[in-house]
Amino acid sequence: MKTTKFTVLILFCILFINLNAQVDVKQKVVNQTNNETNKTIDQGIKKGVDGVKGLFKKKTTNTQTENKTTENEKTANKTAESQPSLVTYSKYDFIPGEKVIFYEDFAQDAIGDFPALWNTNGSAEVVTTNLFPGKWVRFSMQNAIWTDALLNLPDNYTIEFDVIPVKGTEGRMAGYGFRLISSINAKAFDYGAVPGKAGFYLECEYFGRLGYRTYINGEIGDGLGLSGSKEEKETYEQENQKYHIALWAQKARIRLYQNETKLFDLPKAFPVTSIKMDRIRFEDGAAMVSNIRIAVGAPDTRNKLLTEGKLITYGIYFDVNKDQVKPESYGTLKDISTVLTENPGIRVKIIGHTDSDGDAAMNLDLSKRRAASVKNALSQNFGIDASRVETDGKGATQPVAANDSPVNKALNRRVEFVKL
Fold first, then answer.
1. What local confidence, expressed as pLDDT, does residue 85 receive?
2. Which pTM value belongs to this model?
3. Which pLDDT band, with edges at 50, 70 and 90, does 142 fall under?
4. Domain 99-296, architecture per CATH
5. Phi, psi at residue 44, to the nearest 5°?
6. Is 258's pLDDT higher than 70?
7. Residues 6 or more apart from 263 whose CB is under 8 A from it?
């Protein structure tokens, strides 16, 4: 029977080839003409194709299924890879200060202008990019930009910023410098290779290597200066890539992080306790910086959650208008999860809050989604039983400060943990 079917199919194919020599079959099929000859051809094509499908149905179906499965697996893998993972920050122990005292995202500045709260010995301008959201200030070559007003920094504080190395005037990545100093001249630029009374200098060289230098000027600082560099190639920065830099100062100790990596841990960076840092500045090379946050005081997570019954944290991060918890939140979440793990009888409610920028209804929805994301992160990455955690969002309805400045808006963008 199978032999008969195969013979019929072969005869059909021969007939089809002969007809094709006389009639433009492809064009007729495309045009779907209505004359009888083409109807006959169309019917023949259909029967022939159906016959081929009948003979090879099982094989074709299996191949299509295999292809579909492979494509689904590729899509699933691609989706999984595109989601930032908190696990990649498993050794990230940075925890930002409890109270934000300085925040700058240049939201109040016009594109093309120099930022209002800064000063310079050269030039810089506020820009936007097609790759990274928000506003950035771009500086280039032998210029410096610094905080116009001095900072009042205690013994314990954190400094964070996002930076993107870009091309300089030489047509290649130029690197950049970040400096934390104890200024001499409160009104102007402190010149020199070791400016101010003392300082900590982070340098990204033109080829991406990161290094540091500490110094205390005068006889009091003789022999106390330190320097070093991070030689691991995976920490080298690249042009047009965004990096999150975090500095944690605890009296004489300074720890510095890049993304998930602790670059330097200097227990005696500034052994002279009379030295107080009061200014930050970016200089040399070419880069764009934004999301500069300075906070003071070590968070007392255990006491605030267990005794006071309420913890306000600014160490859980999200991109603008996004609800995905960013990996640099790992240190804060780990600190909170430790308290919850050690006290299994405690239940908490996570409440998200936003500033007043944008639509109120959208902010409310965003705050609820962010709280839910924090709960998921605690459950999935730290093993906290989800039944112990409730979530809610208040949008901009419960501000802790007026929404009239970058600092106050940063204070309102927070996550609260309330003991139930």
1. 57
2. 0.75
3. confident
4. Sandwich (2.60)
5. -65, -40
6. yes
7. 210, 212, 230, 235, 256, 257
Hey, what are 383's tokens? Answer: 């093993």
- The pLDDT of residue 225 is 92
With bands split at pLDDT 50, 70 and 90, how would you rate the model's confidence at 88?
low
- Fill in the DSSP letter of residue 138: E
Token output for 402:
């007026």
Query: Residue 311 pLDDT > 90, yes or no?
Result: yes
Quote the tokens at residue 263: 């670059």
CA distances from 252 to 51, 98, 255, 277 (A): 83, 19, 10, 11
**Half-sphere exposure at residue 53, Cβ-oriented, CA atoms within 13 angstroms:** 7
Q: What is the pLDDT of residues 160-208, one digit of tens each?
A: 999 999 999 889 999 999 999 999 988 888 888 899 999 999 999 999 9
pLDDT at 35 over 50: no
Same fold flag, 99-296 and 300-419: no
Q: Which residues have CB under 8 Å from 155's CB, separation 6+?
A: 249, 250, 251
Question: Can you tell me the distance from the alpha carbon of 30 to that of 36, in angstroms, rounded to the nearest whole number?
Answer: 16
Return the structure tokens found at 288.
Answer: 């764009």
| Residues 263, 315: Cα–Cα separation, whole Å | 20
Range 333-367 burial, b when 16+ CB lie within 10 A, else e = bbbbbebbeeeeebebbbbbbbbeeeeeeebbebb
Q: What is the pLDDT of residues 20-32, one digit of tens each?
A: 444 343 444 344 4
At residue 376's C-alpha, the angle toward residues 370 and 379, to 5°, is 145
Query: Which two three-digit tokens encode residue 301?
Result: 């997570």
Q: Tell whether the model's pLDDT for residue 243 goes beyond 50.
A: yes
36-82 and 2-22 helices, crossing angle to 10°: 110
Supply the Cα-derived Rg of the chain in whole angstroms: 31
CA distance 340 to 273: 36
Question: Using alpha carbons only, what angle is made at residue 115 by residues 110 and 116, rounded to the nearest 5 degrees?
Answer: 100
CATH of domain 300-419: 3.30.1330.60
Domain locations in the chain as residue ranges: 2-80, 99-296, 300-419
HEC-encoded secondary structure of 231-253: CCHHHCCCCCCCEEEEEEEECCE
Q: How many of the other CB atoms lie within 10 Å of CB of 29? A: 13
Neighbours of 225 (CB within 10 A): 14
β-bridge mates for residue 177, sequence order: 203, 283
Phi first, then psi, for residue 361 (nearest 5°) are: -65, -40
Looking at residue 299, its pLDDT comes to 84
Query: Residue 181's beta-bridge partner residues?
Result: 199, 279
